[in-house]
Write a structure and sequence with these properties.
single chain; globular; alpha/beta; 22% strand; Rossmann fold; 7 strands
Length: 282
Amino acid sequence: MVIPSEGLEWQVRTWNQMSELYVKENAPRMASVVDGVIARANLGSGERILDIGTGTGGVIERAAPLVGPSGFIVGADVSPNMLELARARLESRFTNIKLIEAPAEAFPGENGAFDVVLASLSIMYVIDRAAAAQEISRVLRSGGRFVAAVWAGPEQCDLVLFQQIAGRFAGPPPVPGVGPGALADPTSFLQQLGNVGIDARLETQMLGFRVDSFAQAWDVFAGVTTAKLTPERRQEAKDAVQAAMWPHGDGPREFRNLTQFIVGQKRPNMPLQGPRDEAARP
């Protein structure tokens, strides 16, 4: 499939800009989500894993010891900067990994190459999720497993509420239907998975993290989104978020984030489409 160039360029630019911040601030706060994905994946020694939207490598860091030296993990991401940080963190520690620049909609791997596909907080940002579902099914072996994590909606997920309020002042993204709350209702994606032979169910878990102040939360979760706003418009966004989420004044806050885990398995004997190429073959 052809991904709209404007949308992909926007995605790459955004994640490149926040890569350093992400590895220092965001990734540690998302560790409980990664733990949830890994626990539900039930990884075993020797298995072949694909991690979609690998970012700075949090999932790989947890998965590599579980599959061991006889297993293999491919981490794919659209952001070169994210991948560069992942390489710096991981490649000296693990010999059973490979990092590649690729979108979820067009993964360069052969049919049935993987036992498990993982996607921790990345499917929400995929531009064409129907195409991604097709690719996930294509690269999974018969009976292979899929585990993803996505945020719930702003009523149940403080992080989504924060980012959606701030994001309203930054204007709409170049492509619709992407962002932290894009799969608050995951029904359509579950159907897309079912259409390509992956039977999936939803599990939910309330997870969270602590921030020390509004200023810290703003820098971590809205700094990049609002960076190009005028100072006046940025202050309006700050005031709106603070009024909604710190109504009693600044200070520490616990973010409670309902996390939705999509847990699926590919039906046995599903027909496979032709391979794209073998660039990511373990």
